Amino acid sequence: MEKLLQVSDEIARELCGGSKDAVKPLSNLLRMEIEKLLTLEVLPEDLAQGFSEDPFEKGTVLKKWCMENRHNGNFPENVFLLLSTVAKYMDIRGASANPLLAFVPDWFSVDGAGKIIIAEPLLKLATPDKGLGRLKDFQRSLLKPYLHPNLLKSLRNCEFRTALVFSFSLFLLDLFLDVQGRSIAELKDGLKKCGAKNHAIPPGLAEAFTTIIAVAPNQEHHTSCEDMVEKASCFFRENPFNCGVMVDPQFKHDVFGYSVPGLNKKMNSNEDRFLSRTHNNITFFMVADGVSTADIGTGEIAAEEVVRLFKTDFFKRFETLAVKLEQNIADDPAFVWYDPADDFLVRFFREASERVTTELNKFYKTENFKPPFQAPMCTTLSAAVVVYDQAAVRYAGDSPVMLFSPERNIFRKLTIDHHHGIEQEFTMADTPDSDALTRVIGARDFSQTEHKFVPSAEEGDPLRVQLKKGDMLLLASDGLIDCIDALTPEQKIDRIEKHIRKFSDDDMRLNELVRQLVALGENELSHDNITLNLLKSSNVGVTSQP
After folding, report:
1. What would the pLDDT profile of 510-539 be if each residue is shown by its tens digit?
2. pLDDT in tens, 500-516
3. How far apart are CA 285 and CA 508, in angstroms?
4. Domains annotated on the chain, with CATH
């Protein structure tokens, strides 16, 4: 290699025509590019084909290129293919005699043909002095943003492959999840929060990366850079929020809902309500869970008012919407159905808050309550308009929306509970109770001048979900999860997943499957009402049971 690199000095002298000031910079540049080409020579032939061999070619920086190819928050297959090539290269370098210590995104760019350009000589800048186990000052300064925080103290006990995987994971965290941090704690905190406001992030991806970055630099990491890219691509392929442009009219729905009062509740009442209506395989279904601690009115009345609103004011509107959607999609398969369906849900949520607040004001006037008011009646609401194989969903509160997809082999809770501590806003009285709801259907405030409650303009958080054949979309009250006897919410959801997989494998009838899932909590803690309204996509006729 030294003989080849000496050629750079001779070429530089010839090109510079004897100008000593210009020889050294040009010679250094030539050395860097020759080193880069020599690096490619040791790669497997199929991998080397993914790299550009032009030493002076300019391209688009790797992250920018990936973002430019993103569509609706999702990354297409060509992005993952290119990232996989970069990852394989990093894995090879990490296992070499002079392993790399860090991945620096700016060292890679992409040309117009989709070939990867190595913009800097990785061999020296990211390789530590193995004899001394340290970095030179300029290396330390350059690599500091990409190193595991503990590596700045000592490299002697470092597993170089673990360090490399960590730095590559930082790039993927920034690219896929928009998470950055200067410490492990900051990264974990960012991963914990990243899905709360961005539903384009595939469920489960943040948790997977949390496990990856938890490995200390002196421990052997069993995940490779290529493994991380493959895992991320699977999450994006399985992402239920990755929706197609067109819906498939061949999809049909079965719907069944079931509710039981909590056997161990302090109050003998059921504040849960559910409803479903289907018109030619366009379905509306919902769950409302009235807040049981109301001191003006009751949660049962609040939830019942939401159901009554649909029956009196929105049933005909839904029929009209379904007919129009059906006709428009038949005329134009690419018709944008989501906007009118989502607008229907927005109007339903707003008018539901107005209806509940109207009833609340009746209680206030007849019972002569005095402010301040701690818990006026209100309710959660999760509702969906399902158009063939896609669903428009909105939710306010903590009534979970979950998806079981056998084809994608996933069971996911799709919603983020609107609880104090997760959400910064609070609708009525501030409280230290971490379970207090911050988003509800009901009043926003009390007007001292008009002496009445003012309805919230609650529209709920939106979701758009892609269904596959055999998928089950579950709308439930929080009791479905909370009444299961397990230590953590994650363990409770795991129990539901285990049983729904078992019941579906047994080819159980839908109504029996729903009853069995409800019975999980009913037979265990049963300290809350338990309600489940479940839609299954299939190729059989529609059955809708109120």
Report:
1. 999 999 999 999 999 899 999 999 999 986
2. 999 887 778 999 999 99
3. 22
4. 42-238 (1.10.510), 252-263+271-545 (3.60.40.10)
